[in-house]
Design a protein that fits this description.
The complex is a heterodimer. Chain A is an all-alpha fold. Chain A contains 11 helices and no strands. In chain B, helix 12 runs antiparallel to helix 13. The chains are: A mainly alpha, B mainly alpha. Chains A and B meet through helix 1, helix 3, helix 4, helix 5 and helix 6 of A and helix 1, helix 4, helix 5, helix 6 and helix 7 of B.
Chain lengths: 299, 333
């Protein structure tokens, strides 16, 4: 939008200065907008070069990296145990948080009367989303690891992460349920179906793609969470876990351990680990996007 | 996140129609679903309970639950020492319980990060909302979302492998002749600042986009330029939404763990020297968890005292954020 004014009319206004001010301002805010982009590029560039240098100069073999577990000795260290632990965590977190999360969303969207209890639950959800992740780790440590004597096992980490992603799953499932038009519901009621039958056979099938997308994105958040796992004691473990009752160290905690070592070899191992972690994230996001686009035009 | 009340639809038909069994199933489903929703409230209560219970044993030598069973409280750490002491070393042979150094560390990181994310985030929001052509917008927004989606551990790595040795250390040695270690306060500020840019920019942009065009056109009609409209109309009109985004970014910075731990280190220093190593509250918790801390020791209990303080700080921020958000929603309904 240009603001061309008649210079004869406004000869007392210094338009040159106005134009300059506008140009300068646009330059400054455009530069600021690019700052984030530049930093992202730097970050990815740094990880990529360290990954490359790790493979070439530090002779980290990718085959060994995927087939060995962690080790105190840098040249024997691998990522297998961490990858297996992270995948197991994802499975457990899904089991623990998906049904409860979707159930809560159904209650809040379809059943909840507009009263004080409902408002309390909603406000509480908003606040839970703002609780620092390390606090969920403290909860896991005090209530499960030591409280009921689980010890620092995979299941304890999964519970902490499940509680952490629950609010995200609930809010995204609520949005998916809200996007199902009321006409669909009324059509079902007209056939004499009860509320629950309507939800189960009409509303949920229509909302499932949105719910799936939200859940996968929530899991993508969980797979990168480090602090809660450190608090429940998932650190300095090199063995691969075989079940939910084994001690473990997942991908992010292993990367943290390596990044904290003074040796350059370990730092480059961390870079290779980060590439694997980001690949996981990328695939999860791609799957979520695919589901979203595939079913966008259904209703 | 909208907390609009959802009006039930078409449930005005009750009784008379469906069979009794269906109604029973309906009631059962409703009860189970309510149980699911109640779990989230239980989570909050559990967090409160665990933090307060364990923090009590740090200050009074016995948990709240133990005191109810008849244990006698004895002052182990006084509140005076905790809140005003300037040395924090609960795990030393000569322990000191002054929490100030690590609170200061957290606040220093938060303030420094705010100096990065608030101006840059706000400028980005103005550009996206008022200036950016659709083609740039559609590329810039997803890029910033990627920035928000990267795990914090990766930012920590970025700080320890790049920002500190490549950006900060050369500056320190060239300008001030300081030989820096692996960690520095300045790296922590920078990396947390970068992390919270997307939060400020996206929420502020939503607020600015919600400002009605009538206001903009009114200003243009009076001969205002785009610069005037952006800074004197749009920004003031969306200010409470913009403030809400600042508070959220600050709250995130206070609770940030992995990035500050890897960037700023593990030494409790009461210093604002940007090239010194410091320790935040979260870094202290990580340090304790890395060690083999036995349950029931003072170090173990100190975790929860610090955790409770952190929780109270972020909760205050979140409540403030709610208040600003509500104010903003009331303005443009």
């Amino acid at each position: 939008m240009s603001t061309d004014t008649d210079t004869d009319l406004f000869s007392d206004v210094d338009l040159g200065w106005e134009h300059l001010k506008n140009r300068l301002f646009l330059g400054v805010i455009f530069a600021a907008s690019m700052f984030g982009v530049v930093m992202l590029a730097l970050l990815l560039f740094d990880v990529a070069t360290d990954f490359y240098v790790g493979l070439t100069e530090y002779n980290i073999s990718l085959v060994d990296f995927f087939t060995r577990d962690g080790s105190r000795r840098e040249e024997l260290s691998g990522f297998r145990g961490a990858i297996v632990a992270s995948v197991m965590l994802m499975v457990l977190v899904t089991i623990l948080s998906f049904f409860v999360g979707v159930g809560s969303a159904i209650y809040l969207e379809e059943y909840a009367p507009d009263n004080r209890i409902t408002r309390l639950i909603e406000a509480n959800l908003a606040n839970l989303a703002g609780v620092p992740s390390i606090v969920y780790g403290l909860l896991g440590l005090a209530a499960f690891v030591n409280g009921i004597g689980m010890g620092p096992i995979l299941l304890a980490g999964a519970i902490a992460l499940a509680l952490l992603v629950m609010p995200i799953i609930i809010v995204s499932a609520q949005e998916a349920l809200r996007s199902v038009p009321d006409g669909v519901r009324n059509g079902s009621y007209a056939t004499g179906a009860t509320k629950w039958q309507t939800i189960r056979r009409v509303v949920l099938p229509a909302a499932i793609p949105g719910i799936m997308t939200g859940t996968i994105l929530a899991l993508a958040r969980a797979i990168g969470e480090t602090a809660p796992l450190i608090m429940v004691g998932a650190i300095f473990i090199n063995r691969m876990p075989y079940g939910p009752f084994d001690r473990f160290s997942a991908m992010p905690t292993t990367i943290y351990n390596w990044a904290n070592e003074p040796s350059q070899h370990f730092i480059h191992l961390a870079a290779v680990g980060i590439v694997v972690l980001l690949t996981f994230l990328f695939v999860m996001n791609a799957v979520a996007m695919y589901i979203r686009h595939r079913y966008e035009t259904e209703i | 996140m909208s907390t609009e009340s959802h009006h039930e639809s078409g449930s005005g038909i009750s009784g008379g129609g469906p069979a009794e069994a269906d109604n029973a199933a309906d009631r059962r489903a409703r009860r189970i679903l309510f149980g699911c929703a109640a779990i989230t409230v239980l989570t909050t209560l559990a967090i409160f309970f665990v933090l307060i219970d364990n923090a009590a044993s740090y200050f009074f030598g016995a948990k709240v639950t133990e005191m109810l069973m008849g244990a006698n409280p004895e002052r182990t750490v006084t509140f005076t020492e905790f809140f005003t002491g300037t040395r924090w070393a609960p795990d030393h042979a000569t322990p000191a319980h002054g929490v100030l150094p690590i609170v200061f560390g957290t606040l220093a990181i938060t303030v420094g990060a705010a100096f990065v994310s608030i101006p840059i985030g706000t400028a980005t929001a103005i550009y996206l909302s008022e200036y950016a052509p659709a083609s740039v917008r559609s590329k810039l927004k997803p890029t910033l979302e990627i920035l928000a989606g990267i795990p914090t551990i990766v930012y920590g790595y970025f700080a320890i492998a790049f920002i500190n040795p490549v950006l900060v250390a050369p500056i320190a040695s060239a300008l001030f002749g300081i030989n820096m270690g692996r960690y520095s306060l300045l790296s922590g500020m920078l990396v947390v600042g970068i992390m919270t840019i997307p939060m400020v920019s996206s929420i502020s942009e939503d607020a600015m986009s919600a400002v009605p065009d009538e206001l903009r056109n009114g200003a243009y009609a009076l001969g205002a330029t785009k610069f005037d409209v952006s800074t004197r109309i749009v920004l003031p009109a969306s200010i409470s939404g913009v403030f809400a985004s600042y508070i959220l970014a600050v709250s995130r910075a206070i609770g940030e763990t992995m990035a500050v731990t890897l960037a700023a280190g593990f030494t409790a220093n009461l210093t604002a020297n940007p090239f010194a190593e410091i320790m935040t509250m979260t870094a202290y918790m990580v340090k304790m968890a890395r060690g083999t801390t036995a349950v029931g020791t003072v170090e173990y209990q100190s975790l929860f005292a610090v955790g409770l303080l952190l929780f109270v700080m972020t909760l205050t921020m979140n409540l403030l954020n709610d208040w600003f958000k509500r104010r903003f929603q009331e303005e443009y309904r």
